[in-house]
Amino acid sequence: MDLIIRNARLPAGAKDQPTVDIGIKAGRIAAIERSISAQAPAFDAKGCLACAGLVETHIHIDKSRIIDRCGPQPRKTYSPVTAVAPIKHTMTLEDTYRRAEKTLQQSILHGTTRMRAQTEVDPAIGMRGFDAVEQLAKDYKWAIDVQICVFPQEGLTNYPGTDELLVESLKRGAKVIGGAPRYDTDGAAQIERIFELGREYDCDIDIHLDVGPTPEGMYVHQVRELTEKYKRGGRVVVGHMAKLSLLPPAEVAKIAKQLADAGVGVTVLPATDLFLMGRDQDHNVRRGVADANLLCEHGVNCSLSSNNILNPATPFGDCSLIRMANLYANVVQLDRPEQIAACFDMLTERSAKLLNLNDYGLKVGNPGDVVIINAESPLQAISEVAQPLASFKNGRQTMRWAAPALLRP
Ligand SMILES: [Zn+2]
Predict the structure, then answer these.
(1) Pick the CATH number of 3-52+362-400 from 2.30.40.10, 3.30.360.10, 1.25.40.10, 3.40.50.300
(2) 180 C-alpha to center of ligand 1: Å?
(3) Which of 106, 236, 282, 331 lies 20 to 30 A from 260 at CA?
(4) What is the distance in A from the centroid of ligand 1 to the CA of 14?
Protein backbone atom coordinates (compact mmCIF):
# COMPACT_ATOMS: atom_id res chain seq x y z
CA MET A 1 0.00 0.00 0.00
CA ASP A 2 1.39 3.44 -0.91
CA LEU A 3 -1.13 5.54 1.02
CA ILE A 4 -3.97 4.91 3.45
CA ILE A 5 -6.67 7.53 3.91
CA ARG A 6 -7.99 6.65 7.36
CA ASN A 7 -11.31 7.44 9.09
CA ALA A 8 -13.24 8.60 6.03
CA ARG A 9 -17.02 8.56 5.74
CA LEU A 10 -18.62 7.23 2.58
CA PRO A 11 -21.57 9.23 1.19
CA ALA A 12 -24.13 6.41 1.44
CA GLY A 13 -25.61 6.44 4.94
CA ALA A 14 -22.64 8.57 5.92
CA LYS A 15 -23.49 9.85 9.38
CA ASP A 16 -24.70 6.57 10.94
CA GLN A 17 -22.09 4.29 9.39
CA PRO A 18 -18.62 3.61 10.81
CA THR A 19 -15.76 5.29 9.03
CA VAL A 20 -13.56 3.38 6.58
CA ASP A 21 -9.95 3.33 5.49
CA ILE A 22 -9.16 3.73 1.79
CA GLY A 23 -5.94 2.09 0.68
CA ILE A 24 -4.19 3.21 -2.51
CA LYS A 25 -1.53 1.30 -4.40
CA ALA A 26 0.16 2.25 -7.69
CA GLY A 27 -2.27 5.14 -8.12
CA ARG A 28 -5.40 3.02 -7.75
CA ILE A 29 -7.80 2.18 -4.95
CA ALA A 30 -6.65 -1.17 -3.60
CA ALA A 31 -8.93 -1.57 -0.56
CA ILE A 32 -11.86 0.06 1.21
CA GLU A 33 -12.24 -1.53 4.63
CA ARG A 34 -13.32 -0.75 8.16
CA SER A 35 -9.68 -0.85 9.24
CA ILE A 36 -6.66 -1.56 7.05
CA SER A 37 -3.88 -3.14 9.06
CA ALA A 38 -1.11 -2.60 6.48
CA GLN A 39 1.60 -0.09 7.28
CA ALA A 40 1.86 2.85 4.86
CA PRO A 41 1.95 6.65 4.92
CA ALA A 42 -1.45 7.76 6.21
CA PHE A 43 -3.79 10.73 5.87
CA ASP A 44 -6.30 11.09 8.70
CA ALA A 45 -9.69 12.19 7.33
CA LYS A 46 -10.92 12.59 10.95
CA GLY A 47 -14.41 11.32 10.18
CA CYS A 48 -14.99 13.67 7.26
CA LEU A 49 -16.93 12.82 4.13
CA ALA A 50 -15.04 11.28 1.22
CA CYS A 51 -15.98 11.11 -2.44
CA ALA A 52 -14.11 10.43 -5.67
CA GLY A 53 -13.93 14.16 -6.37
CA LEU A 54 -16.42 16.71 -7.62
CA VAL A 55 -17.20 16.65 -11.33
CA GLU A 56 -17.61 19.96 -13.16
CA THR A 57 -19.72 18.88 -16.14
CA HIS A 58 -20.02 22.29 -17.79
CA ILE A 59 -17.66 25.27 -17.48
CA HIS A 60 -16.18 27.84 -19.87
CA ILE A 61 -12.66 28.29 -18.52
CA ASP A 62 -11.52 29.83 -21.84
CA LYS A 63 -13.68 32.91 -21.37
CA SER A 64 -13.55 33.15 -17.57
CA ARG A 65 -12.17 36.27 -15.82
CA ILE A 66 -12.92 38.84 -18.51
CA ILE A 67 -15.66 40.79 -16.72
CA ASP A 68 -13.32 43.78 -16.27
CA ARG A 69 -12.94 44.09 -20.07
CA CYS A 70 -16.65 44.24 -20.88
CA GLY A 71 -18.65 47.46 -21.06
CA PRO A 72 -22.09 48.07 -19.58
CA GLN A 73 -25.26 47.04 -21.42
CA PRO A 74 -28.93 47.99 -21.06
CA ARG A 75 -30.77 45.63 -18.71
CA LYS A 76 -33.51 44.61 -21.16
CA THR A 77 -31.27 43.72 -24.10
CA TYR A 78 -28.34 42.38 -22.04
CA SER A 79 -26.46 39.66 -23.93
CA PRO A 80 -23.22 37.99 -22.83
CA VAL A 81 -22.38 37.02 -26.42
CA THR A 82 -22.72 40.66 -27.56
CA ALA A 83 -20.39 41.64 -24.72
CA VAL A 84 -17.67 39.06 -25.47
CA ALA A 85 -17.57 39.19 -29.30
CA PRO A 86 -15.90 42.64 -29.53
CA ILE A 87 -13.11 41.73 -27.07
CA LYS A 88 -12.19 38.37 -28.57
CA HIS A 89 -9.11 39.96 -30.17
CA THR A 90 -7.74 40.56 -26.64
CA MET A 91 -7.99 36.85 -25.90
CA THR A 92 -4.56 35.77 -27.12
CA LEU A 93 -3.24 32.28 -26.50
CA GLU A 94 -1.15 33.46 -23.53
CA ASP A 95 -3.97 35.54 -22.10
CA THR A 96 -6.48 32.69 -22.42
CA TYR A 97 -4.06 30.21 -20.87
CA ARG A 98 -3.40 32.51 -17.92
CA ARG A 99 -7.08 33.22 -17.17
CA ALA A 100 -8.19 29.62 -17.70
CA GLU A 101 -5.33 28.41 -15.52
CA LYS A 102 -6.51 30.52 -12.59
CA THR A 103 -10.03 29.14 -12.97
CA LEU A 104 -8.71 25.59 -13.24
CA GLN A 105 -6.66 26.10 -10.08
CA GLN A 106 -9.72 27.39 -8.23
CA SER A 107 -11.70 24.35 -9.36
CA ILE A 108 -8.98 22.03 -8.07
CA LEU A 109 -8.88 23.95 -4.77
CA HIS A 110 -12.64 23.39 -4.42
CA GLY A 111 -12.38 19.64 -4.82
CA THR A 112 -12.97 19.16 -8.54
CA THR A 113 -11.06 16.23 -10.05
CA ARG A 114 -12.84 15.90 -13.42
CA MET A 115 -14.13 18.53 -15.81
CA ARG A 116 -15.81 19.00 -19.18
CA ALA A 117 -14.54 22.32 -20.54
CA GLN A 118 -16.88 24.03 -23.01
CA THR A 119 -14.46 25.56 -25.50
CA GLU A 120 -15.58 27.85 -28.30
CA VAL A 121 -14.15 28.08 -31.80
CA ASP A 122 -15.09 30.51 -34.56
CA PRO A 123 -13.16 32.69 -37.03
CA ALA A 124 -12.74 35.48 -34.42
CA ILE A 125 -11.13 33.36 -31.67
CA GLY A 126 -9.75 30.79 -34.10
CA MET A 127 -8.10 27.84 -32.33
CA ARG A 128 -6.57 29.99 -29.56
CA GLY A 129 -9.09 28.93 -26.90
CA PHE A 130 -8.79 25.30 -27.91
CA ASP A 131 -4.97 25.47 -27.90
CA ALA A 132 -4.94 27.03 -24.42
CA VAL A 133 -7.36 24.52 -22.89
CA GLU A 134 -5.62 21.59 -24.58
CA GLN A 135 -2.25 22.71 -23.15
CA LEU A 136 -3.75 23.29 -19.68
CA ALA A 137 -5.31 19.84 -19.69
CA LYS A 138 -1.82 18.40 -20.22
CA ASP A 139 -0.14 20.69 -17.68
CA TYR A 140 -2.66 19.92 -14.91
CA LYS A 141 -3.15 16.21 -15.50
CA TRP A 142 -1.55 15.66 -12.07
CA ALA A 143 -4.67 17.15 -10.45
CA ILE A 144 -7.63 17.00 -12.82
CA ASP A 145 -8.90 15.25 -15.95
CA VAL A 146 -10.14 17.84 -18.44
CA GLN A 147 -12.29 16.79 -21.36
CA ILE A 148 -12.82 19.33 -24.16
CA CYS A 149 -16.30 19.99 -25.56
CA VAL A 150 -15.83 22.15 -28.64
CA PHE A 151 -18.78 24.31 -29.71
CA PRO A 152 -19.91 27.33 -31.77
CA GLN A 153 -20.92 30.11 -29.35
CA GLU A 154 -21.81 32.71 -31.97
CA GLY A 155 -23.65 30.53 -34.47
CA LEU A 156 -22.68 27.75 -36.85
CA THR A 157 -24.87 27.94 -39.96
CA ASN A 158 -24.83 31.76 -39.72
CA TYR A 159 -21.07 32.08 -39.24
CA PRO A 160 -18.98 30.90 -42.22
CA GLY A 161 -15.68 29.29 -41.23
CA THR A 162 -16.91 27.92 -37.89
CA ASP A 163 -17.77 24.45 -39.18
CA GLU A 164 -14.20 23.94 -40.43
CA LEU A 165 -12.81 24.86 -36.99
CA LEU A 166 -15.17 22.42 -35.25
CA VAL A 167 -13.98 19.68 -37.60
CA GLU A 168 -10.33 20.60 -36.96
CA SER A 169 -10.92 20.40 -33.18
CA LEU A 170 -12.59 17.01 -33.48
CA LYS A 171 -9.72 15.76 -35.63
CA ARG A 172 -7.31 17.03 -32.97
CA GLY A 173 -9.04 14.97 -30.31
CA ALA A 174 -11.95 16.92 -28.79
CA LYS A 175 -14.07 14.24 -27.15
CA VAL A 176 -17.36 16.12 -27.25
CA ILE A 177 -19.22 18.35 -29.72
CA GLY A 178 -21.49 21.06 -28.33
CA GLY A 179 -23.94 23.62 -29.65
CA ALA A 180 -25.84 26.81 -28.95
CA PRO A 181 -28.68 26.78 -31.49
CA ARG A 182 -30.33 30.00 -30.39
CA TYR A 183 -27.47 31.98 -31.93
CA ASP A 184 -28.35 30.76 -35.44
CA THR A 185 -31.41 31.93 -37.38
CA ASP A 186 -32.06 28.28 -38.15
CA GLY A 187 -31.31 26.64 -34.79
CA ALA A 188 -32.72 23.31 -35.98
CA ALA A 189 -30.13 23.20 -38.78
CA GLN A 190 -27.35 23.69 -36.23
CA ILE A 191 -28.65 20.84 -34.08
CA GLU A 192 -28.87 18.58 -37.15
CA ARG A 193 -25.24 19.38 -38.04
CA ILE A 194 -24.06 18.74 -34.46
CA PHE A 195 -25.59 15.28 -34.52
CA GLU A 196 -23.99 14.58 -37.92
CA LEU A 197 -20.58 15.55 -36.51
CA GLY A 198 -21.26 13.47 -33.39
CA ARG A 199 -21.85 10.44 -35.55
CA GLU A 200 -18.95 11.09 -37.93
CA TYR A 201 -16.38 11.56 -35.13
CA ASP A 202 -18.08 9.19 -32.68
CA CYS A 203 -18.14 11.77 -29.89
CA ASP A 204 -20.58 12.68 -27.15
CA ILE A 205 -22.94 15.65 -27.63
CA ASP A 206 -23.55 18.47 -25.13
CA ILE A 207 -25.79 21.34 -26.28
CA HIS A 208 -26.79 24.64 -24.62
CA LEU A 209 -30.55 24.45 -24.93
CA ASP A 210 -33.89 26.07 -24.35
CA VAL A 211 -33.14 29.36 -22.65
CA GLY A 212 -35.73 32.10 -23.14
CA PRO A 213 -38.65 34.03 -21.69
CA THR A 214 -41.46 31.68 -22.83
CA PRO A 215 -41.80 27.90 -23.11
CA GLU A 216 -42.57 28.15 -26.81
CA GLY A 217 -40.32 26.69 -29.50
CA MET A 218 -38.36 24.24 -27.33
CA TYR A 219 -35.59 22.45 -29.24
CA VAL A 220 -35.50 19.58 -26.77
CA HIS A 221 -38.01 17.57 -28.78
CA GLN A 222 -35.74 17.68 -31.85
CA VAL A 223 -32.74 16.69 -29.71
CA ARG A 224 -34.68 13.73 -28.31
CA GLU A 225 -35.76 12.60 -31.79
CA LEU A 226 -32.21 12.86 -33.17
CA THR A 227 -30.82 11.01 -30.14
CA GLU A 228 -33.13 8.13 -31.00
CA LYS A 229 -32.55 8.37 -34.76
CA TYR A 230 -28.75 8.36 -34.41
CA LYS A 231 -28.84 5.85 -31.51
CA ARG A 232 -26.87 8.18 -29.19
CA GLY A 233 -28.78 7.37 -25.98
CA GLY A 234 -26.56 7.96 -22.91
CA ARG A 235 -24.23 10.18 -24.93
CA VAL A 236 -26.32 13.35 -25.23
CA VAL A 237 -26.56 16.14 -22.65
CA VAL A 238 -28.57 19.35 -22.76
CA GLY A 239 -27.46 22.29 -20.60
CA HIS A 240 -29.58 25.02 -18.97
CA MET A 241 -33.13 23.95 -19.99
CA ALA A 242 -34.36 27.15 -18.32
CA LYS A 243 -37.65 26.89 -20.21
CA LEU A 244 -38.55 23.84 -18.13
CA SER A 245 -38.89 26.22 -15.18
CA LEU A 246 -41.73 27.98 -17.04
CA LEU A 247 -43.86 24.83 -17.33
CA PRO A 248 -46.22 23.25 -14.77
CA PRO A 249 -44.79 20.13 -13.06
CA ALA A 250 -47.05 17.73 -15.00
CA GLU A 251 -45.69 19.00 -18.32
CA VAL A 252 -42.11 18.87 -17.04
CA ALA A 253 -42.74 15.28 -15.94
CA LYS A 254 -43.97 14.37 -19.43
CA ILE A 255 -40.82 15.79 -21.07
CA ALA A 256 -38.65 14.21 -18.36
CA LYS A 257 -40.01 10.74 -19.09
CA GLN A 258 -39.30 11.24 -22.80
CA LEU A 259 -35.72 12.39 -22.07
CA ALA A 260 -35.18 9.48 -19.69
CA ASP A 261 -36.41 6.99 -22.31
CA ALA A 262 -34.17 8.53 -24.99
CA GLY A 263 -31.10 8.68 -22.70
CA VAL A 264 -30.69 12.48 -22.75
CA GLY A 265 -29.11 13.95 -19.60
CA VAL A 266 -29.64 17.48 -18.27
CA THR A 267 -27.11 19.86 -16.71
CA VAL A 268 -28.64 22.68 -14.69
CA LEU A 269 -26.56 25.88 -14.51
CA PRO A 270 -28.19 27.92 -11.75
CA ALA A 271 -25.83 30.90 -11.54
CA THR A 272 -26.04 31.85 -15.21
CA ASP A 273 -29.76 31.22 -15.53
CA LEU A 274 -30.47 33.36 -12.46
CA PHE A 275 -28.30 36.14 -13.84
CA LEU A 276 -29.63 36.16 -17.41
CA MET A 277 -33.28 35.18 -17.22
CA GLY A 278 -36.12 37.69 -16.87
CA ARG A 279 -34.25 40.60 -18.39
CA ASP A 280 -37.58 41.77 -19.89
CA GLN A 281 -38.96 42.20 -16.35
CA ASP A 282 -38.05 44.90 -13.84
CA HIS A 283 -39.93 43.24 -10.97
CA ASN A 284 -41.24 39.76 -10.14
CA VAL A 285 -38.29 38.53 -12.21
CA ARG A 286 -38.49 34.90 -13.32
CA ARG A 287 -35.67 32.73 -12.05
CA GLY A 288 -35.29 30.28 -14.91
CA VAL A 289 -33.67 27.46 -12.94
CA ALA A 290 -34.93 24.02 -13.99
CA ASP A 291 -35.80 21.62 -11.15
CA ALA A 292 -33.19 18.88 -11.52
CA ASN A 293 -34.65 16.92 -8.59
CA LEU A 294 -37.99 16.68 -10.38
CA LEU A 295 -36.24 15.53 -13.56
CA CYS A 296 -34.28 12.90 -11.61
CA GLU A 297 -37.49 11.64 -10.00
CA HIS A 298 -38.75 10.89 -13.50
CA GLY A 299 -35.62 9.02 -14.52
CA VAL A 300 -33.45 11.74 -16.12
CA ASN A 301 -29.79 11.82 -15.18
CA CYS A 302 -28.89 15.37 -14.07
CA SER A 303 -25.87 17.33 -12.91
CA LEU A 304 -25.37 20.80 -11.44
CA SER A 305 -22.48 22.92 -12.74
CA SER A 306 -20.82 26.33 -12.67
CA ASN A 307 -20.92 27.30 -16.38
CA ASN A 308 -19.28 30.72 -16.14
CA ILE A 309 -16.85 32.45 -13.80
CA LEU A 310 -16.36 36.24 -13.72
CA ASN A 311 -17.63 37.02 -17.21
CA PRO A 312 -20.71 38.73 -18.69
CA ALA A 313 -22.77 35.52 -18.44
CA THR A 314 -22.03 35.24 -14.70
CA PRO A 315 -19.98 38.06 -13.11
CA PHE A 316 -19.44 35.99 -9.93
CA GLY A 317 -17.84 32.71 -9.06
CA ASP A 318 -15.32 30.82 -6.97
CA CYS A 319 -15.53 27.46 -8.81
CA SER A 320 -17.13 25.83 -5.75
CA LEU A 321 -19.56 23.21 -6.97
CA ILE A 322 -20.84 22.69 -3.44
CA ARG A 323 -21.77 26.36 -3.23
CA MET A 324 -23.44 26.06 -6.64
CA ALA A 325 -25.56 23.15 -5.39
CA ASN A 326 -26.50 25.14 -2.28
CA LEU A 327 -27.55 28.08 -4.49
CA TYR A 328 -29.64 25.74 -6.63
CA ALA A 329 -31.26 24.13 -3.56
CA ASN A 330 -32.28 27.57 -2.29
CA VAL A 331 -33.75 28.63 -5.62
CA VAL A 332 -35.83 25.50 -6.24
CA GLN A 333 -36.86 25.58 -2.56
CA LEU A 334 -35.75 22.10 -1.53
CA ASP A 335 -36.79 21.28 2.03
CA ARG A 336 -36.56 17.49 2.45
CA PRO A 337 -33.21 16.17 3.67
CA GLU A 338 -33.17 13.49 0.95
CA GLN A 339 -33.77 16.11 -1.76
CA ILE A 340 -30.88 18.23 -0.50
CA ALA A 341 -28.60 15.21 -0.15
CA ALA A 342 -29.51 14.23 -3.74
CA CYS A 343 -27.79 17.43 -4.91
CA PHE A 344 -24.47 15.91 -3.80
CA ASP A 345 -25.01 13.04 -6.27
CA MET A 346 -25.51 15.71 -8.96
CA LEU A 347 -21.92 16.88 -8.30
CA THR A 348 -20.43 13.39 -8.09
CA GLU A 349 -21.90 10.03 -9.17
CA ARG A 350 -24.61 11.40 -11.46
CA SER A 351 -22.19 13.89 -13.03
CA ALA A 352 -19.65 11.16 -13.74
CA LYS A 353 -22.37 9.07 -15.39
CA LEU A 354 -23.45 12.09 -17.44
CA LEU A 355 -19.89 12.38 -18.81
CA ASN A 356 -19.56 8.61 -19.25
CA LEU A 357 -16.60 8.47 -16.85
CA ASN A 358 -16.63 4.73 -16.32
CA ASP A 359 -13.65 4.65 -13.94
CA TYR A 360 -15.13 7.18 -11.47
CA GLY A 361 -16.10 6.30 -7.92
CA LEU A 362 -14.75 5.03 -4.61
CA LYS A 363 -14.35 1.44 -5.73
CA VAL A 364 -11.45 -0.98 -5.66
CA GLY A 365 -9.65 -0.83 -9.01
CA ASN A 366 -10.63 2.76 -9.83
CA PRO A 367 -8.08 5.62 -9.91
CA GLY A 368 -7.00 6.79 -6.46
CA ASP A 369 -9.04 9.97 -6.70
CA VAL A 370 -10.36 10.92 -3.26
CA VAL A 371 -11.64 14.25 -1.97
CA ILE A 372 -12.18 14.85 1.74
CA ILE A 373 -14.94 17.35 2.59
CA ASN A 374 -15.40 19.12 5.93
CA ALA A 375 -18.79 17.50 6.65
CA GLU A 376 -20.16 14.21 7.94
CA SER A 377 -22.75 13.67 5.23
CA PRO A 378 -23.83 14.84 1.76
CA LEU A 379 -26.77 16.64 3.39
CA GLN A 380 -24.46 18.60 5.68
CA ALA A 381 -22.04 19.33 2.83
CA ILE A 382 -24.73 20.95 0.68
CA SER A 383 -26.68 22.61 3.53
CA GLU A 384 -23.62 24.21 5.11
CA VAL A 385 -21.50 24.77 1.97
CA ALA A 386 -18.76 22.58 3.42
CA GLN A 387 -15.20 23.12 2.26
CA PRO A 388 -13.21 20.31 0.59
CA LEU A 389 -10.10 19.96 2.77
CA ALA A 390 -7.90 17.67 0.70
CA SER A 391 -7.79 16.16 -2.79
CA PHE A 392 -5.91 13.14 -4.00
CA LYS A 393 -5.44 12.38 -7.70
CA ASN A 394 -4.15 8.93 -8.59
CA GLY A 395 -3.08 8.56 -4.98
CA ARG A 396 -1.08 11.78 -4.71
CA GLN A 397 -2.32 14.72 -2.63
CA THR A 398 -2.93 17.72 -4.88
CA MET A 399 -4.32 20.37 -2.52
CA ARG A 400 -5.14 21.10 1.11
CA TRP A 401 -7.15 23.52 3.17
CA ALA A 402 -6.73 23.85 6.91
CA ALA A 403 -9.92 23.08 8.81
CA PRO A 404 -11.00 26.20 10.69
CA ALA A 405 -10.51 26.14 14.44
CA LEU A 406 -11.51 28.38 17.33
CA LEU A 407 -8.54 29.59 19.39
CA ARG A 408 -10.13 29.73 22.85
CA PRO A 409 -8.13 31.73 25.43
ZN1 LIG B 1 -22.28 27.03 -21.14
Answers:
(1) 2.30.40.10
(2) 9
(3) 331
(4) 33
What is the tens place of the pLDDT at every residue in 284-293? Answer: 999 999 999 9
Q: How far is the CA of 39 from the centre of ligand 1 (A)?
A: 46
350-367 b/e (C-beta count within 10 Å ≥ 16 → b): bbbbbbebeebbbeeebb
Average pLDDT of span 273-300? 97
> pLDDT tens across 63-118, in order?
999 999 998 999 999 999 999 999 999 999 999 999 999 999 999 999 999 999 99
CA of 362 to the centre of ligand 1 (A): 29
Spacing of C-alpha 323 from chain mean position: 13
Burial of 75 (0-12, 13-18, 19+ CB in 10 A): exposed
Distance (angstroms) between ligand 1 centre and the Cα of 119 equals 9
CA 320, 323, 328, 329 torsion: positive or negative? Answer: positive
